[in-house]
Structure formats: structure tokens, C-alpha cells
User: What shape does this take?
Amino acid sequence: MIQVNGLTKSYGDFQAVKGISFEALPGEVFALLGRNGAGKTTTIEVLAGFQPADAGQARVLGLDPMKDRRQVRRRTGIMLQEAGFFPDLTVVQTVESWRAFTPAARPAHEALELAGLLDRSATKVRQLSGGEKRRLDLALALLGRPDVLFLDEPTTGMDPEARRNTWEVVRALAAEGTTILLTTHYLDEAQRLATRMAIMDRGEIVASGGMAETLATQAGRVSFELPEGISPQELPLPVTMAGAVATCRAEDPDLAAQRLLSWAAEKGLRLRGLEVRTASLEDLFLEGIGNA
Ligand SMILES: Nc1ncnc2c1ncn2[C@@H]1O[C@H](COP(=O)(O)OP(=O)(O)OP(=O)(O)O)[C@@H](O)[C@H]1O
Assistant: This one.
């Protein structure tokens, strides 16, 4: 549904995207992650046909987003970081005006209900909060029942309930077969929604793969306060120290915690503040950009 191969894009002599490749399959939520300025929005803009690639290939639904722009636009929805709305139109007027040039559009109330904005239908756009404007954006992006949806930081500014509502919408759309390319700075969001991901840094992909598989290869952590009078060398597993807190990295953190607890029991010690964490996308993210 989305294929990117050796994609390169520069602004003047600044290379924002440096030969990246990835693909998203039908009904998949693919997360494109990376810190500010990594090149995520640029990649989406090329895929949406807003900008030409300098080199490499971008294909959406097997089509060239520049040459076949009209066909691609008809079957894709997009939610960019900055939306341009008319401030004096109401929410429902905004949706109705978009429906006028969206083929096979959903009824306005359906799009607004999906985006959790039905109760604000009569409100003027200028009176919406930041998070509500994101919801209006979402309603417009899914109006044309797109096969491919580009969501660039869709939940920024939303309250926790609205974020959860948006996740449900994304999951439901993916279950119906919509392919979704998502960028987000909320790594828990990516971890919950995406089946595969790529982490970009300074225009390059520094880590990529299936979400579950990639996290399964990452080490988890066990941390605790080092008991008084004990030196790190006496522990049964190697640790790194940060102040009084010892952290042990382990493929199976539950097993490591058991070993540490039985060692402590034998010695009559308590491991205060014990925390056992499986690998998170955040660890992978920080490691990926740290090694870049
Ligand atoms: N129109 C432009 N002209 C010049 N430089 C640009 C332009 N658009 C983006 N850039 C630069 O290209 C780089 C990549 O920007 P891009 O918006 O793709 O990053 P991003 O990963 O989406 O970042 P963020 O997470 O902050 O949204 C940045 O250094 C940015 O300053």
C-alpha cells in the first residue's frame, strides 16, 4: 500500500531524507518515529504528493504520488500538523464544505461521531480548543473512506480521553483494511497501535521492524536500591549504578528479579524500590538515536 525505496529529499543543500526504504502492508498501522527534524513530515509530504522526491521511489497504492496525484488523493486521507480551517465556519459547515468535493464521502455526522466531535457540531472553528481542532482534522481525514491514511502527530494537544478515543478510531479503521502511516512523539501510542515501525534520525532509518518482534529482542530492566553495606560486585548479576539505584539489564527480567530476590532472602536483606520492566519502545528509541 505504501512503498518507499531509497527516498531522498533535500531543501537547498540540506538533505532532510537520506535514502530511506520501508513499506506498509494493507490494514497495517506503521509508525514512523524520530525526534524533531528527523524527516518524518518530509517523508509524508512526498508520499502525499505535496513535494517531489529528489531520488528514489515513493509509491502509494502502487501509484506515483506526483504523476498520479488525482488518483492518489482520491484514495488517501491526510492529517498534517498544521491544518488550515476557516475560523468563522462551524464544525459541521467545515465538514459539509469538504464533503462537497470528496467523492463517496461519509455523512458529516458519521465523520464527526468517529472523531468524537459531534457535540461541537455547531461551534465555530475559532472557538475550538487545540485538541478539538485535531479531532476536526481527523474527521476530515477519514471523510472519504480512504484506503491509506497519513496521520502526522494526530493526538498532539488531545486530552487523555480524546487520545484513547482516537486510538479506537485508528484501530477500527485498520481493522476495516485502511493502511495507516502514523508519526507520533508518544511512544506508548506507537507501541499500542503500530504493528511495525521505523525510527528515523537525521534523515536516516536507524532501527526498524515488527513492533512485537523488535521489542522481544530488547533487554528488560530490573532496578532496586542497593542495600546498605553491600557493594555492586557482591550481587549475583552485573548492574550499573545511578546514585544508590542499581539496574540490571536482562533478556528475561522476571527471572533476573527472582535470582536477585532469592539472593537477598539468603542474606536476610530487602531490595527496596524493586522495579521490573520489560523492554519498551522508549528504550529502543533512545538506543537507536544514541547509536546514530
Ligand atoms: N520547507 C523547508 N525548507 C527548508 N528546510 C526544511 C523545510 N521543511 C523541513 N525542513 C527541514 O528538514 C528537516 C526535517 O524536517 P521534518 O519536518 O521532515 O522533520 P520531522 O521529523 O517531521 O520533525 P518534527 O517531529 O519536529 O515534526 C528539519 O531539519 C527541517 O528544519
Notes: The chain has a mean pLDDT of 91. Residues 160-175 form the longest helix (16 residues). The domain at 2-84+146-214 is CATH 3.40.50.300 (Rossmann fold). The chain has two domains: 2-84+146-214, 218-291.
